Structures are given as C-alpha cells and as structure tokens.
Amino acid sequence: MDFRRIESIFLIVFIGLNIFLGISYFQNHQVSLATTRSGNSEIMADIRRDQIKVPKLSKKAPTGGYLSSQRNVALRSSQQALTNQTITYSGSKILTLHSQLVTPETVKRADRVRFLKNWVKTSSNVRFGDQYEYAPGLSSGNHIVFAQNSGKLVYDRRAQLVFSFSDSRLIGYTQTYIETLRVLRSNVSLCSEQDAIITLYRDNELTNNAKVVWTKLAYSYLLDAKGSTVYVPMWLVGVQPAGSKTVTIKHLNAITKTVVKTAE
User: Fold this and answer.
1) Transmembrane stretches, by residue range (predicted)?
2) Using CA atoms, how far apart are residues 113 and 115, in angstroms rounded to an integer?
3) Cα 234 from Cα 211, distance rounded (Å)
C-alpha cells in the first residue's frame, strides 16, 4: 500500500470519526433543541441582563464541510512577476512571502481599504490578488488584512495578505496562499450564529458588559495529517471586554459546537 493511499485512508477515518461525533452530538441534543426554543430565548434574555451587547443573530443552520490542502510553493515564482518590490521568503511549513516596496505608495488613512481593493487586482502588485477579500475583523491599526476566498472563505494565517502602513505610506505586505483546497466532506449541518453566541456564553467566554463586535463563518485550521492540512467551518466572534478597546477573537468549531481555545 503506497504512502498516498495510507494518507487518504487516515484522513477518511479521521473525518468519519469527527462527523460521527458531530452527528451524535446533534442527535443527542435534537429533542432538547426542538423543545427548548424558549430556553434559548431565556438564555438570550440572560445575555441581555448581563449587559452583553450582541448584534441581531441568525437562527438559521448553515451547511459546510471538511477541506484539505497540501504544502505548496506557488508563491516561489513571484519574484519575477512582481514590480517595485524586494521579495524574501520564510517558513518551511507555511511558506510566507515578504514584500518591501522600493517606492512606498502614498495613501490617506481614510482611503486605505478602497486603495488596496484595487491595488491587489494588479498581478504585478500581488500574486493571486483577485482571490483575496478585505477582512475588517482581522485588521487593526496600521495592518490591513485580506483573507483568501477561492470559492471557500478562509480566515487563517495560512491564507492571508497583511499590508503594513507607516503613517500615510504603504510600505509592504506579507502573503500566504493555499493553492488548492480539496473537499473531503460537504453538506454537513452547522450550528447557527445564535447557537455560537449561546455556546460562548455558556462556556464563560462572554463576560458581563462585553460587546460582540462582529461574527464571521469561515474555514479555519483543524489539524495537520501526513503532509495535508485539514480545515473546518468555524464561527469567529470578535469580543470587546468592558472598559477595553481591544477586540479578542473567539473560535468555535461550527460542526461540533465546541470552543477552540487556540487557533494554530
């Protein structure tokens, strides 16, 4: 049995086990969830009583699945394609392209996002730039983040553009890229946006007087297995504690409805 076949069998067994656990969880709670809609309403009332501010939340259960990728060197050929940039690389596990602009671009702070949305579309500025979209929840200060979306939105450090500004100058960026995402399993029922917030509240991830600033359902890292990386749908929730300007991002596996303490 060759290595590729062993790897495929390992991944299939793992995904099957994870799906089984997820289905078991939802089956075990199906009656409870069906009969305690008022219970969810009560929990949402508790959230409001604790002065936790939340946006309007969807109760609709979306679908998703499991994706995988393999290490790639697609960015390695970028040095010849990009202009006005000094290019270096780092990382063996996650290849990262580092770009320093030879002549920085002058951009007003208020125009940064609009400028970058157009700038990334030029192939001599950014490789595969049309496969990225602005990610406001991941951006802060002088760092503007774009997340890769090649048909599946990925919020993960393995698939990002991070642009760096100094005052009114764009000075460079870093880039990671997933060349191919393979669907391992699709049409898996996911927890709703409201379920995600309720789970975070029950697990004491939302403190009194906190504010849920934003939510996003996207694919994120689950594990590495024999040269492949597996991604699952996750609810990412930006939470601002009381009296703080810092927004902390919470991760919730949307299949198993479990809090992910550390996103790799």
Assistant:
1) 9-26
2) 5
3) 20
